[in-house]
Amino acid sequence: MDYAAALVEQNMLFGELIRDADPATPVPTCPGWTLKQLFRHVGRGDRWAAQMVRDRVDGYLDPRTVRDGKPPEDVDGALTWLHGGPRALADAIAEVGPDTPAWTFLGPRPATWWVRRRLHEATVHRADAALALGLPYDLAAPLAADAISEWLDLATAGPRQPAVLDPGVTLHLHATDDLGPSGEWMIRAADDGVVTWEHGHGKGTTAVRGHSVDLLLALLRRRPADVDLQVLGAEDVWTTWLDRTPF
């Protein structure tokens, strides 16, 4: 998958979605935010990642310190600013080299790690905007499945209190799109509480089936857990996962 091209595309779609919308529109899936705040968050986030890469920041960077972190007030200027974010990130990676270590939430990773992270930030926040405006949202199945995989990396990284699954429990996610192995995920909690995941098919304590985009929106709590999904086995495992995972 060409993550850089997909980031540019999702960024453009996000901008067009809210071009003519009222900036004061509340965003229910981001409590306390308006579309204006969501827009700034997305545009500044790309620049935030670019600045960490370019400046080789070795710790969390306060987003308030990001250069050019606020959009112009006029719509056309704001959209130009938004679309400049992916370019700024691409330029920063090209400047330092794609394999240069960069700070991330998971510890040092190659600078190109941030392209995929920002891509899926854009896919999900585009869903936030669409839901706020009462508009339909769709995402190509391979991209939605990759977003699930990327999210699982984040959700299972490092120790978490409480653990996202109880010891000995297995959660199987199955995208009903024609995706092959990349559309199935086995999430396991070892006896010591460490949670891991891998692509594959198997019998879990609980299985959740549905289109990849529906699985993604449920995992990130952008849609109720039972909408357009089939839950097989112990339903409390699924609800526990949703209660304990971040965001």
TrEMBL record:
Top-rank lineage group of the source organism: Bacteria
SUPFAM superfamilies: DinB/YfiT-like putative metalloenzymes
GO molecular function: metal ion binding
MDMPI C-terminal domain sequence ranges: 143-238
Gene Ontology, cellular component aspect: plasma membrane
Domain Mycothiol-dependent maleylpyruvate isomerase metal-binding, chain residue ranges per copy: 6-130
Alphabetical list of InterPro entries matching this protein: DinB/YfiT-like, Maleyloyr_isom, MDMPI_C-term_domain, MDMPI_metal-binding
UniProt xrefs under PANTHER family: CONSERVED PROTEIN
The protein's name in its UniProt record: Maleylpyruvate isomerase family mycothiol-dependent enzyme
